[in-house]
Design goal:
The protein has 10 helices and 14 strands. The protein is an alpha/beta fold. Bound molecules: 4'-deoxy-4'-aminopyridoxal-5'-phosphate (PMP).
């Protein structure tokens, strides 16, 4: 069976054990004589999957009964609009930290509604770092502060939790959700499209304080309100059962591996291996991110010429190292090393980087 080391940014690599388990039980799920994508979302076997996934996510995050997990469709991109629609107003705008493409897209949606304002931006520096705490200018009347915790395209990540005083903190964690322990209680709302660290595309996990969800704007259409998902256990309409089922399996896999502390241990080893290959290359590889903003999930770097970059991608693929081409807005390479990427994958890529440099200097 051919399996490559898959460095794609999302959809992305998933734990092999999870895929094998899903394959083994596909045709006859929970002895129902049906697959998970054929059974009713109101059936007992499905509800068990749904509720267990929610419980495992909350317990991995160390959150209690004051938080709920919602499963919503429309991608993280729909969250960009739902958040201001539900929680901001023209008087109390959402404050946005612009640290990359997706935080800018989130702000754009709020701006369409005239409910957004910028609290800080590193756009002028081509988003090579996330803003520091002392650069955040948060309006005391803001409805919330929105940050993107890991910038998938630029390869930068927050390594501190912004201090916001009384202003609720919201985070897009699409590309680093459940990759390390974070004091999640400091956040009122966290969301993540699952197709990077947690499962197949099709569902967004929203983890929010219940008292906050209850503030959803009641003049919105039903499906745009967070409290619809909360009151109906995310079963108001047909949920994306297969995505949720795989997310549940990935959450169980993380638990079995040792939880978020173990994920952080593995992820920091992988990141160290790749950043060392960059730092020890005598300038052949140039990292995009400033050192104190470096992402543990997406490692971005350039080579001396675009020709060498093309050659790098082609030769990497010959070595079963797939998906290393960067996003066009940064150029160069991007190695995404989410939870499911084994340490051996990072080692294989670093070995290839060293060899490639020696043959091409
Ligand atoms: N936020 C981040 C951090 C992302 O990486 C992405 C997708 N790459 C998005 C939001 C948009 O997610 P979706 O495609 O699910 O709308």
């Amino acid at each position: 069976m051919k399996r490559v080391y898959n460095f794609n940014p999302g959809p992305a690599t998933l734990p092999l054990e999870v895929l094998q388990e899903a394959q083994a039980e596909f045709l006859n799920f929970d002895n129902s004589g049906m697959s998970i994508i054929e059974i009713s979302h109101r059936s007992a076997p499905y509800e068990k999957v749904h509720n267990q996934a929610k419980a495992d996510i909350l317990s991995l995050m160390g959150l209690g009964d004051d938080y709920d997990v919602l499963f919503i469709q429309g991608g993280a991109s729909l969250q960009f609009a739902m958040i201001p629609l539900n929680f901001a107003s023209h008087e109390h705008k959402g404050a946005y930290v612009l640290s990359g493409t997706f935080s800018s897209n989130a702000y754009k949606e709020a701006a369409i509604l005239e409910m957004g304002e910028v609290a800080a931006s590193t756009k002028e520096e081509n988003f090579c770092r996330v803003p520091r705490q002392d650069e955040l200018k948060i309006n005391p009347d803001a409805a919330y502060l929105h940050v993107c915790y890991n910038n998938t395209i630029y390869g930068t990540e927050f390594h501190y939790i912004p201090e916001t005083g009384k202003i609720p903190l919201f985070a897009d964690m699409s590309s680093d959700m459940l990759s390390r322990p974070v004091d999640f209680k400091k956040f009122s709302l966290i969301y993540a499209g699952v197709q990077k660290n947690l499962g197949p595309a099709g569902v967004v996990i929203v983890v929010a304080r219940k008292s906050f969800i209850e503030k959803s704007r009641d003049t919105l259409p039903t499906m745009l309100r967070y409290d619809t998902f909360y009151k109906k256990n995310s079963l108001y309409n047909t949920p994306p059962a297969f995505s949720i089922y795989i997310v549940g399996k990935v959450a169980a896999w993380i638990k079995n591996c040792g939880g978020l502390t173990e994920m952080a241990r593995r992820n920091s080893i992988k990141a160290k291996i790749l950043y060392e290959a960059i730092d020890n290359s005598n300038g052949f590889y140039r990292g995009h991110a400033e050192k104190d903003s470096r992402s543990f999930m997406n490692v971005t770097f350039r080579l001396p010429t675009e020709e060498l970059e093309k050659k790098f991608v082609a030769e990497a693929l010959e070595k079963n190292l797939s998906g290393v081409k960067g996003h066009r807005s940064v150029g160069g390479m991007r190695a995404s090393i989410y939870n499911a990427m084994p340490i051996e994958g990072a080692e294989a890529l670093a070995d290839f980087m060293n060899q490639f440099r020696k043959s091409n200097v």
